[in-house]
Amino acid sequence: MNEVKQPKKPLIYYYVIVLLVLMLFNFLAMPWILQRQVREVDYGTFISMTEEKQVGQVEIQAESNQIIFTDKDNTAVYKTGMVDDPDLTARLYNSGAKFSGQIIEQMSPILSFLLTWVLPIVIFIGIGQWMSKKMMDRAGGPNSMAFGMGKSNAKIYVKSSEGIRFSDVAGEDEAKENLKEIVDYLHNPNIYKEVGAAMPKGILLVGPPGTGKTMLAKAVAGEANVPFFSMSGSEFVEMFVGMGAAKVRDLFRQAKEKAPCIVFIDEIDAIGKKRDGQIGGNDEREQTLNQLLTEMDGFEENSGVILLAATNRPESLDPALTRPGRFDRRVPVELPDMKGREEILKVHARKIKVSDDADFGKVARMASGASGAELANIVNEAALRAVRSGRKVVTQADLEESIEVVIAGYQKKNAILTDKEKKIVACHEIGHALVAAMQSHSAPVQKITIVPRTSGALGYTMQVEEGEHYLMSKEEIENKIATLTGGRAAEELVFGSITTGASNDIEQATKLSRAMITRYGMSEEFDMVAMETVTNQYLGGDTSLACSAETQTQIDQQVVETVKKQHEKARRILSENRQKLDELADYLYEKETITGDEFMAILNA
Ligand code: ADP
Fold first, then answer.
1. Which of 3, 165, 341, 426 fits a 20 to 30 Å CA distance from 14?
2. Which CATH architecture has domain 38-106?
3. 172 is catalytic
């Protein structure tokens, strides 16, 4: 889609000013310019030109004591001072010069017209254009007090052949299904009107960041072939109270003019947050929200303006915004599942050259939990890696390495671990892998590496699920906790001391065991009682406790117990397989990176 600039409005006062300046120019500047055309010569030259019959026209201005004359072809104008010369008239007459009253006005009518009318118009239109551009620019700035007050400065996209279509948005089939109805409505509104069906005025796209909400909104506009207005919620909120509201009005006015069209407000939570009713709240934001609500009520159903909005914090929206008649349809745009991930990878791989060995299914499996934006990034990283190594095509290895880059950062080329540290890291990672491999409900190990990464990880063990998992059993979570504690357990067994290397494992293990107790109802004491609620589903999943201080203490005790039990289990598994642990750790120490297959081969040998 192409973004187009706002149409410039005819400013009547601007034209009046141009006219006034034009007149002034003619009265004051014109005579001056014309004067400049006249070349001053001495009387002798005049006399000799007369004698040589070179004078075309002559005008004697007695009152200003000067003679104006032209050459034979009337192309150049001269002037000279008047001298007491009684024979002048006769001489001029004899030379064939014509006597004239208004040489200056007569000279070159085209030039005169150009200078008098065309040039000034061109100059002032130029200045006017420049000024109005300045005004438009300033309208968007934070200090737009004087100019362009309350301009919405929404980006407007018009239909174009290169617009985003549904086929560019991979996966997200449910969301697309839902939005296709809107496209259909924009194509044939009459079918809906006949039945009396009304399209929802507002549709809310909710989901984690980078899942393609903006893309979907653009795709609706692209498919329906209608203009697309796009604005971010934060753009409405200005320094001065009332300006956001004015922007909302302007946006809707423009949209109604262009109907049928789509208005997209990204990050609507910036203006749509719950009004908390506190004194001294955010007046500007609330006024903007009120204006938005009023505008939404104001436009008729089936008016052809469809409002789309995106947010990743739906729970923070004001209930007035989500009530029926406003944003009453909610389209979830979730993180893609395995098939979705594969499709997204393929969509983005269209833009790059990929070798035949690339297995997008495997990459999709490895990149579990990645959003569309991350997958796009993975493909791009892979292409960059291919260029870096001087290849023309992207290989499977590029793709796999770029997953690690996106997850764990780049390889640290010059991080120098001491021999002892390297041994500890190798042992730690094999600890994770071995505990995982020895338990039945664990994802298979894909790769183990002890090459440090820019994220700070000194090594990691990558486990990849075979298929898609939507549910996790209690055993699976417990096994996961055991796997997380496996690294530390191996250090304890082999070196008899512990290091800081397990900090990330500890964090994750604690989170999991807490969730088991407070949210998944997996503890005997609390049964199916929710002790925590998730407040921020799509942004990291922050939780808030909803229980008494005594219960909290009990929860903490249980969290510790759960982790301890699993740590114990990991230690047991490792000591039962002590020989394999040493063997594998040595192998990893030597190779630095080993695959899951190599790992299994040694384990099963
Ligand atoms: P959101 O608005 O949900 O934060 P965007 O729509 O801005 O996410 O997506 C960011 C980028 O991620 C897009 O430009 C696109 O390259 C990629 N992307 C996200 N989801 C998809 C998808 N389903 N199919 C293809 N590309 C996607």
1. 3
2. 2-Layer Sandwich (3.30)
3. no
